[in-house]
Amino acid sequence: MLKRLAVFALVTMVVAGALTGCSRPAAPSQPQQGPQQSQQPQQPAQRVRLSMGTATTGGLYYIMGGAWAKLLNENLKTVDVTAEVTGGSVANAQMIQGDKIHFGFSQATAAYEAYNGMGWTKGKKYDRVRGMIALYPGALTMYCLESKPIKKIQDLNGKIVGLGPAGAGVDAMGRNLFKALNIKPKQIQNLPHDQTIQAVRDGILDAAMVVQLAPWPGLMDLEATNAVRFIGITKEEAAKVVADFPYYSETIIPKGAYKGAKEDIITLGDWNLGIVDANLAADIVYDIVKTTFEKQKDLVAVHKAAEFTKPENVVYNTIPLHPGAYRYYKEKGIKIPENLVPSKQ
């Protein structure tokens, strides 16, 4: 009997202890935070640093590049864009391929040759280069002092001619023109745009070329101190060049665009593009394109060339678009030519 009572008492104590343990609140592993305690404020997202390739000082790429970087930095909280001085169109394609810049300016022909491994590339394809924005058209502008015995393109045979910076689109365009028309200058010099103007003024260069939308400030500056003659080509010569290089087109520099433009001047045309690295995030490219068009008036205030910076001019691109840019144009309901549609769209 006593043995049974002892067992019963022991079982009762164990059960009671177990029940007591179940009813005791567990101590929190970490101090609980009351509603009056605020969370640490979130740090603002860090801006992505981007480099934009322009050209040498004095050219419109350099002028527009500074304005474009300013526009993006003031209106986007996600990027910090720096406009870099470069050699221009060819150099910018090379720098995109080489991880040196993220986006930049290029003539449409130079971009086409880069992507397809033609012309100046000597067979190498720059497969990271993509289209983004068609900025404005440009005209090949050939000029000399009126004191020089140069009145037509054939007169450049045996002369010293400036083709702008090495790696600029005008350098490739000028050499293609010479090749198509069998023009053989005595020497070709590659100087930055502002130095080219000065070399013409000083008589060091017999003539020079630039691809710009008239009126270009550099030539207006030259005309302020010197009488300038503009050199055109015939319609037949334009047709011959376009037959050899179909990405060029015949265009004119209108009468009165410069003091020395006493009549319409037949020449070659090419669009100027914003090109971009295929590896840049689609959301960033979309924001760049969207903000550029929404704030286009800021660019027009710097140079009227930006009046052509409109979404519908995307058709003047010559290489496939970046997916981020393509998304913007599709949202705007713009029909994209098949050759510009990114792969896997």
Describe the structure.
With about 350 residues, this protein is α/β, with parallel strands linked by helices. It has a single domain, classed as Periplasmic binding protein-like II (D-Maltodextrin-Binding Protein, domain 2, 3-Layer(aba) Sandwich). It is built from eleven helices and ten strands. Strands 1, 2, 3, 4, 5, 6, 7, 8, 9 and 10 form a ten-stranded mixed beta sheet that branches. Helix 5 crosses helix 8.
Question: Strands, helices and their partners?
Answer:
Layout: H1 2-23, E1 48-53, H2 60-75, E2 79-84, H3 89-97, E3 103-107, H4 108-116, E4 129-145, E5 160-162, H5 169-181, E6 187-189, H6 193-201, E7 207-212, H7 217-223, E8 228-231, H8 235-244, E9 249-253, E10 265-277, H9 282-294, H10 296-300, H11 323-331
Parallel strand pairs: 1-2, 1-3, 5-6, 5-7
Antiparallel strand pairs: 3-10, 4-7, 4-8, 4-10, 9-10
Helix pairs in contact: 5-8, 9-11
Short description:
The chain has 345 residues and is of the alpha/beta class.
From the spread of the alpha carbons, the general shape counts as globular
What is the CATH level 1 assignment? Answer: Alpha Beta
Number of helical segments?
11
Q: Please give the CATH architecture.
A: 3-Layer(aba) Sandwich
Order of helical and strand elements = HEHEHEHEEHEHEHEHEEHHH
At the fourth level of CATH, the homologous superfamily is Periplasmic binding protein-like II
| First-last Cα distance | 90 Å
What portion of residues belong to β-strands? 15-25%
The biggest sheet, with number of strands, parallel, antiparallel or mixed sense and barrel status, is: 10 strands, mixed
> What is the CATH topology?
D-Maltodextrin-Binding Protein, domain 2
Mean pLDDT across every amino acid position: 87
Tell me roughly what share of residues is in helical segments.
Answer: 25-40%
Total number of domains: 1
How does the helix and strand content classify structurally? alpha/beta
Task: Flag low-confidence runs.
Answer: 1-38
Indicate the radius of gyration in whole angstroms. 32 Å
